[in-house]
Amino acid sequence: MFRNFFTIALRYLWRNKTYSLLNYVCLTFGLTCTLVAVLFILNVLSFDKFHKNYDRLYSAEAYVTFFNGDRFPKQYLSASLADQLKVQAPEIEAMTRVAGCNFSFANGDKSFAEEGFFADENFFDLFSFPMIQNTNHTQLIDVNSILISEPMALRFFGTNDCIGKSLVIKEEEKTEIYKVAGLFRKVPKQSTLQFDFVIPFAKFLSDNKWAIESGATACQTWVLLRDGFDFRSVTNKIKNLITKQEATLNQELFLFPLNDKVLFGYAGGKRIWKEMQNVVMVGAIGLAILLIACFNFINLAIALNIRRYREAGIKKVVGSDRSVIVLQFLGEIFIVVLASLISAVILVSISLAGFNTMFNNDIQFQLLDLRMVLFFIGITLFTGLVSGLLPALYLASSNPVDVLKGKIVTSHSYSSFRQGLIIFQFVIPIILIIVMMIIKTQDNYMEHYNVGVDRDQLIVLDNSPNIQKHFESVKSDLLAIPGISAVSATNCIPTRGTRPTNEVSWEGKDATQLPHFWCINVDFDYNKTVDVKLTEGRFFNASFSADSANYLINDVAAILMNIKNPVGSSLTIEGKKGTIIGTFKDFYAIDLAGPVVPTLMRINSPEKPILLVKYGTGSYAAITDKIRKVVQHDDPEALFQPTLFRDLPSYAQLSLPTNLAGLAFVIALFLACLGFFGLASFTAESRTKEIGIRKANGATIPSIVRLLLANYTKWVIVAFVLAVPVAYLLGMIFLGRFNFHTPIPVWAFTIGPLITYAIALLTVGWKSWRAAARNPVEALRYE
Questions:
Q1: CA distance readout (Å), 460 to 393, 500, 606, 645, 653
Q2: Per DSSP, what are the bridge partners of residue 222?
Q3: Among residues 522, 518, 520, 528, which one has the least CA distance to residue 471?
Q4: Phi and psi at residue 484, in whole multiples of 5°?
Q5: How does 161-179 read in b/e, with b if 16+ C-beta sit within 10 Å?
Q6: d(Cα 501, Cα 491) in Å, to the nearest integer?
Q7: What is the DSSP annotation of 691-714?
Q8: Nearest to residue 593, comparing CAs of 737, 454, 489, 393?
Q9: Regarding beta strands 71-74 and 92-107, do their DSSP bridges make them parallel or antiparallel, or are they unpaired?
């Protein structure tokens, strides 16, 4: 019986090659998109799961209430917090402290900048980063020891046999030698913590005595809870620990699960979506595209089944059961689904590298992974049943009496259900193109928003310790380069963020309140590279010696401090007292997704790791080549990596959702149009005689084309009406994430649907025109 089913299925598919090919292509693309979506989701959900203590690891963080009442988490806390937690929460089995760092290491003539951690000696006990050599945790006791990754060992030594060898760190005038005490494997990309070396935390404490102060922003504290304890109950026990130490800090502790680190963030005291947003978006798009492919199959299958009504009726007359007819049709479906799945696997294998490049990801495809095997079984059953069950039941519903009388029911070919499927197929592309245009408009808005810099003429450089030591000389040499108009050292690039502090005092301040201010360290020429919009007073001037102790504040800081006329008022920042000499507005210390925050500018801080170079004439390549010569003359070992302000990576990270929505739109519209084309072919073929009669009676080709296109136009219009409210709602939710955002682009709700409509009509218009242009004599002979 099964051999007979298989033979009939192949014969039918071969006899209807055009429709079989359309269904195959649709399902192949649908399954390809679904497979990529599943791989993306599995990749995200696999983050940090290689740690044996994955479910019991938490970072201790604190909610900090900002000036506008919002509560945001603070990851780096005092290094003394670990001792307090041990006393307060016996549910904690172990803790380790971690502080990020970035050093330039040297070994002979090799020098590289590396990122790593200061960490306690039990770091590798809590986290399961695999060691290659020296698995004893005592390796992090000696303050001059260092553990390095295998890639770092190969960069410096050319081999992983490097235990006992030395690496040199040069910082300003200080040179430190570290002995390699251990080697660990490359940190997986599916890890929240990314590093290439680990130095004992005791070294960090010896160099930073302030780190143990109650309100210090020093390090992360990771805790391992004992089995069986709920982190929420522990959070309730420790939440007031910092305020008990120092009431003025007003920071509330909480535990942030490691398994939430990638998917979620915390803002306003609530858990919010982070990568989870992309997981849901990718999953929804993958499912929607697969459903479009399945609905295409259903529409074409029901239309074609009209021809098979007599076949099904005769089978019933000779004794076939409905279940036999259903099984035969489902067998045909599963042949197409399996062929499509095999093709999808091949396509994913070929295109995955390009997908990773486009979306900056590292997705791996392991065909024999148990999860993938289960997925293949599930997706085959899901696609086959969704695509084939309804047409199979429709085919099996034939009445043998009607068939023998020559009555073939055709009314179902344009049923409300099938029209609903067609409408759904176009709702998805319309929503996607509108949402893509909204995201792209916001991206352009942020890219061109006036943040006080000339995006195409401001070069950003690292200000190395050696350059800072000879800054005035380097600055003079840079200004001597034709085309360069200003040079400034700072710790803040507008919209890129900087360090906040709550160690700010002024006359009349409430001692119980410790609001956060963003401190911008500048020099006397900062306002020449960045447009500081003064509203009162003046900018710093080298002619005034007292300015080295003075400050500027923005209008938000003045409101927060409740000072009506701030110029001339005294202000103390981190123990240094000075006078406010000016106020400014519209300075964006953080990304445009956030508000304008209370901001202070000062001259008297040496922390200025960024060099800003503004040029007015000359090409970027020529200018940077001349800058390189100046920088390398004063610091030959410095890494020279100039970046134009416009090319700095976006904090908002809108490229992923924009590219994703755009690619999904193209694929969804392509699949919908394939279904439209197949349906148009069937419609034109089934109405051949009608078209011939109309032409014989004087109908013109344009009038027949309009007649054939009328139904398609109606369906796309209904899809537009349904899609617009959904797209508008999604757009408003998206734009609501940003404090500064574009108005909802009304044009997107016109251009997007028009593009979809035009492509859809072009798809079916060609087939309709061919049907209308046929010779009426040939058309009348057709039946």
A1: 67, 21, 18, 7, 20
A2: 59, 96
A3: 522
A4: -80, 125
A5: ebeeeebebbeeeeebebe
A6: 14
A7: HHHHHHTT--HHHHHHHHHHHHHH
A8: 737
A9: unpaired
Here the tokens at position 729 are: 């709602």
The tokens for 383 are 């696609």
H helices of 569-654, in order, are 620-634
User: Within a 10 A sphere around the Cβ of 129, how many other Cβ atoms?
Assistant: 20
Q: Please state the pTM of the whole predicted model.
A: 0.78
3-state secondary structure 53-76: CHHHEEEEEEEEECCCCCEEEECC
Backbone phi, psi, residue 139, to 5°: -65, -20
Backbone angle region of 172, left / alpha / beta, with phi > 0 → left and psi within -120 to 50 → alpha: left
Is the pLDDT at 396 greater than 90? The verdict is no
The number of CA neighbours under 13 Å toward the Cβ of 467 is: 32
Q: How many CA atoms lie within 13 A of 308 on its CB side?
A: 25
Tokens of 345: 């696997």
| Residue 261: how many other CB atoms lie within 10 Å | 19
Distance CA 716, CA 720 (A): 6
724-741 confidence digits (pLDDT tens): 999 999 999 888 878 889
Task: Decide: 140 and 119 in contact? Cβ < 8 Å.
Answer: yes
- 248 pLDDT band, cuts 50/70/90, is low
